[in-house]
Amino acid sequence: MRSVDGIIFDVDGTLWDSTNVVERAWNKAIEDSGIKNISVTADDLRSLFGLPMDDIIAAIMPDENADVRAAFKPLCFSYEHEFLERESGAVYPGLEKTLKELSRDHKLFIVSNCQAGYIELFLKKTGYGKYFMDHVCPGDTDLLKADNIRYITKKHGLTDPIYVGDTHMDEEASRQAQVRFVFAAYGFGHSIAPDLTIYCPEDLISAISSL
Asked: 37, 140 in Cβ contact below 8 A?
């Protein structure tokens, strides 16, 4: 049986759900940008999280030109960070127990298609930085998820890592990076043919031995 030597996690829909807070932040950014007749809901965000940020913004405001979207992007990030500093996303039940247990025998990492500073904010708000060896996102490397999975794998000399995520986009990135995919079915999306499915974070503790 192959031995998993690294576990790489997505953030949104896998470690926490920040969409209720981000909804308020993004709508404030839309309002202050002077963009009319557009708003976003937490459900909208859940259906879009996992995409690159430029794609999410394009989906929310498809009729706006590139200059408007480009001007919105930094304001959106600023408000999101400000709102999440005051509040916090909802951590999934049993997550800390899971991370504590898994980190005893495995190296843990985070790879997400988010902006720079978002993963750090998640770690700050939860206090879970002690469980993770490293993290990376497009805001750090200008690379998307598949290449960032490869980056972490190469940087830390991993021979058989897995990726844990909650969307088909996560699954596709895992396949591109040639790592096995664990589907977090409690999250935002769907999967086609995962190597393993978990229904809460704690499932990973016992299920990982079957990989």
From this structure: no
Contact residues for 166 (Cβ-Cβ < 8 A; gap 6+): 10, 12, 13, 14, 50, 183, 184, 185, 186, 187, 188, 189
* Structural contact between residues 88 and 21, judged by C-beta atoms closer than 8 angstroms: yes
* Dist CA 178 CA 200 (whole Å): 24
Question: What is the rounded distance in angstroms from the CA atom of residue 115 to the CA atom of residue 159?
Answer: 28
Query: pTM value?
Result: 0.94
CATH superfamily membership of 6-17+91-210: HAD superfamily/HAD-like (3.40.50.1000)
Residues of the chain with CATH 3.40.50.1000: 6-17+91-210
DSSP classification of residue 94: T
Segment 106-127, tens digit of pLDDT: 999 999 999 999 999 999 999 9
State the CATH class of domain 19-86.
Answer: mainly alpha
DSSP helix/strand/coil, 92: coil
